[in-house]
Amino acid sequence: MNHTLDVKNLKTHYSSEEGKVKAVDGVSFAIGENQVFGLAGESGCGKSTLIRTIMRLIPKSAKVTAERLLFKEHDLLRVSDKFFREKILWQGISLVPQSAMNALNPVYRVGDQCTEAILAHTNVSKAKAVETVVKMFDAVGLQSGLMKAYPHEFSGGMRQRAMLAMSLVLSPELVVMDEPTTGLDVLVQERILRNLKEIRKNTKTSAAILLITHDISVIAGMSDRIGIMYAGKLMETADSMELFNEPYHPYTLGLKNAFPSIKALDRELISIPGSPPNLTHNIPGCLFYERCPFSIDVCRYEKPEEMEVLPNHFVQCHRTEHVMEFRKLAGEKKTWQFSK
Amino acid sequence: MAILEINNLKQYFYINPPWLSRLVSKKKPGIIKAVDDVSFSLAKGEILGVAGESGCGKSTTCLAIAKLREPTSGTIHYKGKDIAGMTPAEIRNYRKEVQLIFQDPYESLNPRFRVFDLVAEPLRALAVCDSNKELTQRVTATIAMAGLNPKDYIKKHPHEMSGGERQRVGIAQALVLEPELVIADEPLSMLDVSIRAGILDLIRDLSRRMNFSCIYVSHDLSILSNISERLMIMYLGKVVEIGHTRDIITRPMHPYAQALIAAVPIPDPAYERPIPNIRGEVSQPIDPPPGCRFQTRCLKVTDICRTREPSMTELEPGHSVACHLYT
Amino acid sequence: MKFSIVKDFLVAQYKIIRGNRFGMFGAVILLFFGVIALLAPYIAPYELWESLRDSSGKLAILRHPSLEFPLGTTAMGRDLLSQLILATRTTVLIGLTSGLVSILIGANIGLLSGYYGGKLDEVFMRFTDIVYGMPFLPFLIVLISLFGRNIWFVIIAICCIIWRTSARVIRAQVMSIRQRQYIQAAKARGCSNFRIIYGHIMPNILPLLLLYTAFNIAWSVLAEAGASFLGFSDPNNITWGGMLYNLWISGKIRTAWWWFATPSICIILLVSALVFISRAYEEVANPRLKQR
Q: Which of A220, A262, A272 is opposite residue B194, by nearest beta carbon?
């Protein structure tokens, strides 16, 4: 199978004042051509570090190891910085960073910044570059006249769309989006996601998307495949329909109940007790042990191996054989009311 | 009996262009009509949700009710008494009864204070307790009520706590005075999703236990649908629809409410979101055109919408809309 | 429980200074001078104005440093070591008093101006601008010519001028803190303006405050040294600058290096120590400066 991005056992470890932080600890996943992979997780789970590792935006003092980190045929662990910057960045992989609306340089016109990106990486003429930008602006729903405007004249949503357009101008094969809709109103958010879907349907190139967010509702609507990240590890990875209909990991079960939905007005909201672990502490067992209502002794002392419970559905849990029972229990509030 | 009655509340901000450009181009001072003729009431013990996007005026309304900002015009009656023109002593009493829960747990706690002092501060500032013993008792009880074990937390500084813990401290701060009206300004938006439910439950339980009324402001309709009994939707400083939460969520009447509800994401991959019937961008509440505020974005706009502002019409008991489609 | 803020503060200061090499060095020097200043009358071997005779009976004029007179003697036969020790006390006193009073003025003006804004801010800042325009020495000269040479006028003159920089800086910091949500929260919880300014805002500007306290004391010492060197000091209370003044009027400045060296070194050491301590606070006020 031809993967756009193939990651196996990626680890990013930092040393901080308090000790070694295993921000990303053995993450494996693959994104196929034209596939949308949603990476869900809360603050501190390591998803931002993960994309920064892929994009080479982490400080030099961080240690990165992996069995495989392939983008198409390029080994991202071995290519030089120069090659990465010239050939891979923007053209191969582009990034729409978090709070992208603040990533635009306030003293340059928006259109100029976009054409700049094209001209810096390819040899096309300025006219052709402008034409591409106009096309992209149109695709995201921005009028071409807005190219002459400055960032402060755009609203937050418009800036985000401009960043989206900028990330697509060089027709990259992988677009990484870090919390693309956080901080935006729901109508603006809906519009951006709709634009994204339309762009993918219309453009001829096959762009895969790595979408990172803490909002499960956004991920549900957009992704083909979903990975649930917690404390630096991928707890569960599966196709999105299967993840929602047949979840395995207790964290996933907990998350399902934590999201209110206007379609389920009577459903009780249940929150997961506790908070994510401190990554500087060396935890021998499963990282979800403290908050898991179904944990047993082995969970405390041994880290679970990644298992393929269904075709292409991976889980890191010791007790997957009891999942039917867990799914039922997870829906009850008293299951989650315990203290360790 | 309504504990709070807001009538024709207006909060205008005047922007004065620099005097030189005023002289040269005769630019008139612009007016931001952040809150423009808002009226609603709140019953005792009720949780009213206020929904709307950024710039709709919901936070400004809260500040006016909390008496942190003087409204331009309109009246706010608390327990039947007008809160404008209060003496300093009356304001102090008002603060004992009307409190706020803030949005950002990382910004709303003074980083130099420990948890005990943070929660004790309202009591100290308003000189509520007669003895130190009473103060300590009340503070530890409130911290426990907020779901934190006092023994573990009273000595901590904010930076030693997670977002959820900080927000609980913020809630304790608001509730230590045993207020009768609590205004919660998006208390969950900065928290991780897995702990939001816990804080939401806390607010709901405490509102029942302590019998306080609550105005819950949020842009997240999913959360509002879970906690509020009645819902009020605002757009550009005006109330467009108000009614029981269930009625509005299942049968929204105002085109804006319909678009908003259509746009709410559902955590279900099988769900196909309908395209909201709305066009254009959110406009700024600066110098709005005459007529309905929503005219530039409404797909069902007619001539009357461009000339006259719609008034609130009651469609069914407790459910009112401000739209010419229904008058 | 209110006590915990004071205790926290002291513990925090200790940690800040401990954690910084410059801070430690500065603290040690300050402690050294402080001890000398305290014990001055008890450790000075001779009287201040006593013209001394050496073992052979001759007037000990302009002696090089020796066992008998470790720092040498002046043109009038006075022991420089004793002078230095006693002058330390006066210098430290002037430095501390002027420094602390000026930071009190500056901090309060900064706090009130930054918090209230509006007309009060305008008035205070325009007044600060005027003080910025006032040169220190002429001001001191005027005071002294009107009222005579007295240590208190030196202190008053310094206090009247030095507060201006700290006022500006603290005001800027207060203005940014005033916008923070926890200040709005404090207001909502019923705190009076006074309580907010001194109970909520001030604890947050403490690193900056301490930084400028150190600076103010340093500037006071320098200002006093400069003024004394030019002769505008109290002839009865000698300071390090005053010692240099005596050296100058004796005409022996080119030859009596021992007389010149010690007061100058002391001034440099004290001012440097204060600046080093302020570096420790600079790191707290701006954490990005922390050495990784």
A: A272
pLDDT > 90? residue C20: no
**Considering all CA atoms of chain B, what is the largest pairwise distance in Å, rounded to the nearest integer?**
67
Residues B220-277: tens digit of each pLDDT: 898 999 899 999 999 989 999 999 999 999 999 999 999 999 888 888 888 888 888 8
Residue B74 lies in a domain: yes
- CB distance from A143 to chain B under 8 Å? no
The 10s digit of each residue's pLDDT in A64-115 is 989 989 888 888 888 888 888 888 887 888 888 877 667 788 888 888 888 8
Residue contact C1–B92, C-beta within 8 A: no
Q: pLDDT tens digits, residue range A238-284?
A: 999 999 999 999 999 988 888 888 888 878 888 888 878 878 788 88
Question: Cβ contact (<8 Å) for A186 and B221?
Answer: yes
- Is-above-0.90 flag for pTM? no
Residue extents of the structural domains in chain C? 3-38+79-289
DSSP string, B71-101: -SEEEEEETTEE-TT--HHHHHHHHHHEEEE
Is B71 contained in some domain? yes
Domain residues for the domain of B248 are: 2-285
- How far A42 CA sits from the closest chain B CA (Å)? 6
Contact B249 A261 (CB under 8 A): no
Q: What number of residues does chain B have? A: 327
- Check if B271 contacts A (Cβ < 8 Å): yes
Are the Cβ atoms of B269 and A43 closer than 8 angstroms?
no
C65 CA to chain B: closest CA distance, Å?
A: 53
Neighbour subunits, C (≥3 Cβ pairs < 8 A)? B
Specify burial of residue B225 (Cβ count, 10 A radius: 0-12, 13-18, 19+): buried
Residues in chain A: 340
Q: What's the domain count of chain B?
A: 1
Cα–Cα dist A332/A278, whole Å: 28
Interface membership of C28 toward B (CB under 8 Å): no
| CATH no. of C3-38+79-289 | 1.10.3720.10
- Among B89, B76, B96, which residue's Cα sits nearest to residue B2? B76
In whole angstroms, how far apart are CA A58 and each of B111, B150, B179? 29, 39, 48
- Interface contact A197, partner B, CB < 8 A: no
Task: Tell me if chain A has a CB within 8 Å of the CB of B309.
Answer: no
Q: Is residue B308 part of a domain?
A: no
Q: Does the CB of C176 have a partner CB in chain B at under 8 Å?
A: no
Distance CA B246, CA B230 (A): 8
CB contact under 8 A, C186 and B66: no
ipTM of the complex: 0.84
Which two structure tokens, joined as six digits, stand for A130?
């402008």
CB proximity B121 to C under 8 Å: yes
